Amino acid sequence: MMNSYYILTKNEEDPIILQDGFNFYCLFFGLFWALYKGVWSLSAIFISLFIVSTYIKYTNIIDPIYIESLTVIANLMIAFHANDSVKQSLINNGYTLSTIIASDKRELAYQRYLDHIH
């Protein structure tokens, strides 16, 4: 199955390769993944989601099962857009989107990029 990979570069640093699409690490590790990647907007969303869902659960405004369901749905939506948020964060930090490469594996995408620039 072919995947799309973003190649981002900055000056003489090694390129960063991001896979387009769903991010399982973000789904399972959420806030910790966002903090590790330095995506502060997603970190704020995760913290806000946690605070609001905890408040609603303890005040019994809505049945807790609905809150848990909405939290899972929100986490799935965030995981679908996580790599785009990382890409935008890198662009905001001075990286440029060099190219988008379709490939089966990350290593092959990197090799294609190297072949393209040489």
What does this structure look like?
By secondary structure, the protein is α+β, with helices and mostly antiparallel strands. It has one domain. Helices cover 64% and strands 16% of the residues. It has helices at 24-37, 40-59, 64-92, 106-117, and strands at 3-9, 16-19, 96-103. The protein has a three-stranded antiparallel β-sheet, sandwiched between helices. Helix 1 crosses helix 2 (40-59), helix 1 packs across helix 3 and helix 2 runs antiparallel to helix 3 (64-92).
Helical segment count: 4
> What value does the average pLDDT take?
91
Largest sheet features? 3 strands, antiparallel
Proportion in β-strands:
15-25%
Indicate the topology.
Blueprint: E1 3-9, E2 16-19, H1 24-37, H2 40-59, H3 64-92, E3 96-103, H4 106-117
Antiparallel strand pairs: 1-2, 1-3
Helix pairs in contact: 1-2, 1-3, 2-3
Compact overview of the structure:
It contains four helices and three strands. It is α+β, with helices and mostly antiparallel strands and 118 residues long. A hairpin with a 6-residue loop joins strand 1 (3-9) and strand 2.
